[in-house]
Description:
Blueprint: H1 10-23, H2 25-34, H3 46-54, H4 60-72, H5 78-83, H6 86-91, H7 96-107, H8 112-115, H9 120-128, H10 135-144, H11 157-166, H12 175-182, H13 189-204
Helix pairs in contact: 1-2, 1-13, 3-7, 3-10, 9-10, 11-13
Catalytic activity: Hydrolysis of alkylated DNA, releasing 3-methyladenine, 3-methylguanine, 7-methylguanine and 7-methyladenine
Pfam families: HhH-GPD
Enzyme class: hydrolase
Amino acid sequence: MAEPRLILTQADIDEGCAHLAAVCPVWARVLPELGPLPLRRQPDGFAAMAQAIVGQQVSVAAAAAIWGRLLAAGLHRQQTLRDADDDTLRAAGLSRPKARYLRGIAAAGLDWEGLRALPDDKAIAELVALPGIGVWTAEIYLKFALGRADVFAAGDLALQEAARGMYGLSDRPGPAALRAMAEPWQPWRAVAARGLWAYYRWAKGREGIS
Length: 210
């Protein structure tokens, strides 16, 4: 089994951008206007997943504020969060469902290091079996914590809206249509996602992801 292609350095981002520009004239035109795309790598493990859960369905600013309070309280650590009471988690800004999800994930005993060796589909399957983790959250984790180069997250609304604008589409493409659009971008669809988020930020004046 071939090891997954990883994004480790800015040079990998640059290689991905060169591929996108080579296979698509729209990317070739747009990428120079976006400037350097961010690496956005972070250490893998419980804290990275907790941050992804915190960012679900809230604004970038709200997610940053909640995450800052969790960090200050040491609640980014698996054992600390697992043992925290409801009042402590609510004081940090977690909703009841997110507090329940994070406790469940903390108690699940997932082999975070073992995920590194799994192919994308199996790693996603391991994650979505945990409470509160859907495909989008699992894909975000694979992109930024594990550095997987070809994970895309076609269900992301900001990516869909960015694709609509970039390609001059009359309607926002749904997940299936966006996955079809992204086929030529393999094996660098995670770089394409970074590019679409950058386009969204440029076009809308706000972040598409926390």
